[in-house]
Amino acid sequence: MATLPRGITAVSWKNSTKSKEKIVKYRVRVQKKVDDQQVKLDSLFDTLQQAVDELNNFKSKAGSYFLSTIDKLKEEERKKVNEFLVAPPISVYISKYITEKIDTRKNETQTQQRNTAVIKSFFKTILKTKIPNRHYSTTEPLLQAGGMLALIANNTLSQAEEKKEFGAFKVQEISYIEINDYIKERLKTVKKISVTRELSFIKKVFNELKYYDKSFFSLKNPVLFYDKGLLANSDISSKNSYRLSTEDKDILFGALHKYSNWELKAISLLSYYCGFSRSEIVPLTWEQVNLAENYVQLYQKKSGQPRKVYILKEAKEIFENMPKTNGDRLFSYGVLGFSGSFDKLVEKLGLRKKGFRFHFFRREAISNLVFNLSQATGSTGQDFSILISEILGIENIASLERNHINQLSPTEIASQNQVMKSVGHSNKKTTKRYSRIKIR
């Protein structure tokens, strides 16, 4: 018997009558997946030709449907590509902004590299934040109609709870409504001051759009029109006034003392005593450290101007006990690597939740000086503004008084106990017992 086409089988049986005649029929049994649906054919035919005709007919119909489906998909894809080219999402313009405005900055020092990384991190957060997608084809006419119809559309949207990433929105889709949604979403996890900073970056991108596409020349920046009540008093409500208590100092410096890498402890203590920022202390070289004349020469500053920081007794002891195992540099850490290690430790200790950040060591350095000078003279902290600025190398005295010294109380320091209470010290020897550097 000739080989039957695939999908056709011969089925035979004997007639139940007395003749016992052999009956042969042809079964067509095939299936195809078309548009995610299984289409089946399972039938018997008297002749092979009927079976072949039906099989070919089935394949032809399924094939035509399949080809038409492919054509539809191709057309939809073509429309999407064309739509993307005509109206790209905001992510395209943010990427262009980063390339032209951020990547072209000087990136030579570790401070500059860290600043670039921080800005890119902000943009990454902005792009990935999901907000309600109010641009449905089913609800868009209602939204445009305004009034009660728009309210109905919004209720429908809130019930659907469909969101998409901010970076996926077209520029034309982002209004002050989307900015409000963005603010509300971010306030679920971060403080108002952080959201304000993120909005400043979104605003900068929208300001640049007219230089990327002339159709945006008259585009109004949506950040200018968001609901100001959402971030009201952000500078006041978000101001972090946390101070390291004696207990928290013991927890932090005790953990640093046990940390596997002695450098983490040394960097933290030097900042605690001398008010160094991480971008100043981490890249430090031995050439910058003058122990004979008790000062450190700094070059990496936001202003770009060099400054001297005088070495206090406790800091000098740390410098003298440090091993010189990193060549010209004091530490092997990079700024970003140190930040990651320090932040993870603070998070683990529960201090980050309380509000502690590395740059708060600067507050501690200033309060320590106020404490020591006030104890010796009985004068107020403001009397030492110039002296403190000289010791710690702070150029802006007004800023020092406004952001640090004026935050200390009481204004009249009448006794040592008052001083210690005002600056958060209940024991003068707190921290000092952890100062000596040991190599594991």
TrEMBL record:
Keywords: DNA recombination. It comes from the Bacteria. GO terms for molecular function: DNA binding. InterPro entries: DNA_brk_join_enz, Integrase-like_cat_sf, Integrase_catalytic. Residues 426-440 have a biased composition (Basic residues). Residues 239-418 form the Tyr recombinase domain. Residues 416-440 are annotated as: Disordered. One of its GO terms (biological process) is DNA integration. Pfam families: Phage_integrase. PROSITE patterns: TYR_RECOMBINASE (PS51898). This is Phage integrase family protein.
